[in-house]
């Protein structure tokens, strides 16, 4: 009998330990009352800082809707992009929501939700190169200087597909684009949604936007490995908003309406 009770106690203890270990980011956020999301607020129109110091954007609004569905507050945790994965893994926030492309390399370190949008890399080039550069292939020459943001797929793609060109990465997108505007670079490689806005806001007639994407890049939310309960919740949430009109309303606010640009001036 004693042996039986001892085994039973061990089993119950193990079950409690496993249950505790399974508590994921969403459960933690509900208990805390706040969903903390790591993001680098420089990626228009996904997450950016307006003139009042508020972090706004397409992805931000999706995450706010998610937090509302959980009955909790939303908190954006501003984090440099090249350190955002280590910050998640050391519990600085619950999840990554920072325009992150779901790549196989990143997937070895993180679990990802289903994509909430698909984008692709495009080019901004100096106006003087409009007839000379028609695609990324034309830039694969050591005489050209390419810019992008450090740690992004723009950087990865440049080093892989335009490897002969000189490359210089920046901590944020505006710096890289201004390098191009000032004639210090020949092209900027980045996601299409950002470049649509950048050519209008910062191009000042000096840049040309080659809008044909040359990569396939699904953007998704990143969580710690093994947090399947949170992934399940997020995927079900995304499915819900894509069918109840919420997603379309948020998408149109940031991609079809440009009123938000006034908040950035």
TrEMBL record:
<dbReference type="InterPro" id="IPR001320">
    <property type="entry name" value="Iontro_rcpt_C"/>
</dbReference>
<protein>
    <submittedName>
        <fullName>Transporter substrate-binding domain-containing protein</fullName>
    </submittedName>
</protein>
<dbReference type="Pfam" id="PF00497">
    <property type="entry name" value="SBP_bac_3"/>
</dbReference>
<dbReference type="InterPro" id="IPR018313">
    <property type="entry name" value="SBP_3_CS"/>
</dbReference>
<dbReference type="InterPro" id="IPR001638">
    <property type="entry name" value="Solute-binding_3/MltF_N"/>
</dbReference>
<dbReference type="GO" id="GO:0015276">
    <property type="term" value="F:ligand-gated monoatomic ion channel activity"/>
</dbReference>
<feature type="domain" description="Ionotropic glutamate receptor C-terminal">
    <location>
        <begin position="34"/>
        <end position="257"/>
    </location>
</feature>
<comment type="similarity">
    <text>Belongs to the bacterial solute-binding protein 3 family.</text>
</comment>
<dbReference type="GO" id="GO:0030313">
    <property type="term" value="C:cell envelope"/>
</dbReference>
<feature type="domain" description="Solute-binding protein family 3/N-terminal">
    <location>
        <begin position="34"/>
        <end position="258"/>
    </location>
</feature>
<feature type="signal peptide">
    <location>
        <begin position="1"/>
        <end position="23"/>
    </location>
</feature>
<keyword id="KW-0732">Signal</keyword>
<dbReference type="GO" id="GO:0016020">
    <property type="term" value="C:membrane"/>
</dbReference>
């Amino acid at each position: 009998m004693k042996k039986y009770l001892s085994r039973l106690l061990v089993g119950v203890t193990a079950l409690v330990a496993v249950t505790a270990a399974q508590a994921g980011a969403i459960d933690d956020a509900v208990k805390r009352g706040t969903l903390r999301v790591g993001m680098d607020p420089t990626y228009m129109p996904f997450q950016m800082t307006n003139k009042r110091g508020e972090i706004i954007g397409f992805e931000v609004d999706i995450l706010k809707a998610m937090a509302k569905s959980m009955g909790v507050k939303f908190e954006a945790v501003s984090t440099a992009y090249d350190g955002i994965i280590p910050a998640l893994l050391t519990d600085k926030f619950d999840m990554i929501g920072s325009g992150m492309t779901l790549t196989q390399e990143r997937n070895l370190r993180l679990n990802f939700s289903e994509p909430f949008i698909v984008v692709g890399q495009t080019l901004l080039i100096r106006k003087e190169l409009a007839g000379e550069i028609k695609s990324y292939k034309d830039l694969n020459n050591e005489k050209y200087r390419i810019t992008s943001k450090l740690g992004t797929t723009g950087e990865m793609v440049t080093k892989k597909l335009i490897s002969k060109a000189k490359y210089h990465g920046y901590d944020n997108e505006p710096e890289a684009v201004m390098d191009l505007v000032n004639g210090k670079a020949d092209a900027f490689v980045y996601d299409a949604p950002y470049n649509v806005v950048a050519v209008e806001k910062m191009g000042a007639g000096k840049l040309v936007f080659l809008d044909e994407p040359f990569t396939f890049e699904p953007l998704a939310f990143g969580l710690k490995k093994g947090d399947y309960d949170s992934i399940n919740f997020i995927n079900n949430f995304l499915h819900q908003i894509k069918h109840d009109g919420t997603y379309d309303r948020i998408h149109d606010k940031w991609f079809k309406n440009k009123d938000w640009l006034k908040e950035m001036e």
